[in-house]
Amino acid sequence: MGAVTELHATRTNPPWEGLEGTERHAACVIAAREGHRGALDVLVAELTPLVWHIARGAGLDRSAAEDVAQTVWLALLRHVDSIAEPRAVVGWLITTTRREAKRTRQRSATQVELLPEVAEHVPSTEPMPEAEALRTERDRQLWSAFHRLDQRCQELLRLTVLAGRAEYKVVAEVLRMPHGSIGPTRGRCLTALRSLYDNGDGGR
Amino acid sequence: MRTMDDYEMDPAEQEFWLAQVARIVDELDPVPAGLVERAQFAIDLEDIDAEVELEAARWADQRPLAGVRGGAPGTITFFVGDLTVMVNVTRTGEKQRIDGWLVPAGEHGVEVRVADQGSKTTTADEGGRFVLTEIPRGTTQILVRMNGGKPRTVVTPTVEL
Asked: Which residues are in the RNA polymerase sigma-70 region domain (chain A) (predicted)?
């Protein structure tokens, strides 16, 4: 890439400028290690949607998912010097978010078990979307069907949508999603979604 | 035995259902407004030092704050490892007062950062109690700097107070 050589000539540009995907993320990690303010902000701005949808796909409510997202970024701040491979930071984020989401979920499960009187008052296990987001009956059905999928499918389908976008191509690489193909597992998840949607509305 | 549900989707139908998932991702369940900025604030810590262990605390699940994101005063708790910190927030006019209690007790440094409004620090007494007054309202993060033994700094995710 000719752009890389040009960049070295212009010292005022941040080292990740003009780079994309894996190269850009790696440049941000290396710059953060060297104390470049703003390097982690770039990762936070560009990869928070990935972290968010993994946390939500793991069944956390919006408030818990927000805490997990921030905790993951604090963990990156803490571990930025020890991540063995800066090019693998997206994989590190995916793993860390899954682990943190699981920990949070297990902890709430334990608390509910300890307090059955609380469990009675938990209205629904469906993590609600934005309060006003579900405007139509169709959206309500879609939401309800989606959250009856197993969590593996929920995460996989959310990430499939992200990975299909140019700025998240690296997600497809990390998850080894073949380009332009849905693949059998995602096909099964989509079929399950359709089936839950069709069966969810009382004989449409 | 195959049922109707098992038949393979053709690519056009896959596209249709993927578009439904895209609708969930973008419209029904978008990244919360301001989350990127709150996360950037949370990690914008001045004195991060390789010698000091940084630990992310977790807010306790049952937050008595009525809709904690809305920010009514009350008691909230965060913890990490063996440290638990209870924080009681009371409104004092436009500002607020924070009474806290570290368990186990220790004369540790406590800092309250509010986005765009600076920070205030104090030191807990030997019983683990601390008080900070005249704290502006906003996106808030609490840090506990633990001395004695291996130095470590505990930081929370932000909370709207």
From this structure: 43-107
